[in-house]
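Sequence only, no structure available. Ideas?
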Amino acid sequence: MSEPAKPGRTVLIGAGRMGAALASGWLRKRGAVDAENLLIVDPGRNETCKALVSKYGLKRVPELGPRMAKDVSTVVLAVKPQQFDELGPKLGDILPEDAAVISVIAGISIRRLKSALGDRPIVRAMPNTPASIGKGITVAVASDAPAAVKRQAEKLLKVGGPVEWITDERHMGAVTAVSGSGPAYVFFMVEALAGAGFAEGLPRELAERLARETVVGAAALLAESDQSPAELRRAVTSPGGTTQAALDVLMTGLPDLMRNAVAAAERQSRRLGGDNGR
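Reply:
I predicted one. Tokens follow.
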């Protein structure tokens, strides 16, 4: 398989939260993608897409036609998994043979992507929503994509935060369950912590602020520290103290609950993809 031809247009298909987060990062960081060289393919009915197009003066079309596809060098797929069955074959028919595809669609394997899009360079990646502020993390797998395509994918994905490459695509379901879905678990924990504070008599607004700022601060400390999460936890926990009393409750159920939650998300990732990611 040859390396991609001369640089052409970058096309983002799907400008929901994740797609828009990536595009905003490209345009904020010079050298990723120029606004005049970026085409948004999206019906444009969601507010996220409208805001993105308006802010950066981007060109948007509801679907990619053959004429527009001729000079495309890179396509980033950020649609919902359920939309791929209809979209994939259409793209396979009109994209240039050397156009590289970067897919951030949850659950859709490289095998399935190639089945619809043809034998072209493909990178499958899983970012998460903190990428919208440059604080996310992305895991990517490239199969047989050439080095130039991996470099282009790295450039486009790293605007959201660090990029980790793996060689075994079978891990992508677990990646999706841990980091792709993970921010929602943290947000729900903040909800639950605030609710517990309210139940103990705190004013709701104060309980919500305490829960939010505690998690934000703990995350910042974790990011700045060279200690492991377990070491940081032990540093806060005095034997026989209030933290220990709470952890005695959490440790009896939270590890199993989290394992079950991640396993459920991984199974759903495979179901959405229609295969086992192999």
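The first helix runs from residue 17 to 28.
Hope that gets you unstuck.
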